[in-house]
Amino acid sequence: MSLGGGRGMLTDAVRALKREWQRCRNAWDDQTARRFETKHLAPIDPAARQALEAMERLQTAADDARRACE
Question: What's the whole-model pTM score?
Fold first, then answer.
């Protein structure tokens, strides 16, 4: 799998998770749901953003290395 494919898969997975969580939240609206969201789901966005940025840097480094070897 290419880094571009991995970025797309991560982006799609985060979107799907958010969409499904919204469906759950429509039926599950109590303190436990809020605690779950805060503890487990809220950290995903910044972590995914960091991962995507790292993947872009890695792709740039790989492209640079490929060009240097040509």
Answer: 0.80
